[in-house]
Amino acid sequence: MLELRPNCECCDRDLPPQSELARICTFECTFCADCAESRFHGVCPNCEGDLVARPIRPDSKLHRFPASLRRINKAHTACAKPPPPAAPGSGRDGWSVTL
Ligand SMILES: [Zn+2]
Ligand SMILES: [Zn+2]
């Protein structure tokens, strides 16, 4: 049975069982759609498997088979960095930029 983890492993956003933004891999590593797409390009950073939309468990079943409450949060290499810039070659030197 799916654990239905409550949050994105990367940005810690809440992903309730009804969320259509939840993405999981075959090991149930769980991410939000934003992280899955913009940071990982649909590939799980832990196991390199596909990230796909998590099936929604009907409310009627959640009573008997509740979602997991265990929040998992990991520091992935891809999480530590901001999403890659949209336009490469914009002339900015990453080393000299201070924000
Ligand atoms: Zn996320
Ligand atoms: Zn995985």
From TrEMBL:
It comes from Caulobacter sp. 602-2. Pfam families: DUF1272 (PF06906). It comes from the Bacteria. This is DUF1272 domain-containing protein. InterPro entries: DUF1272 (IPR010696). Residues 77-99 are annotated as: Disordered.
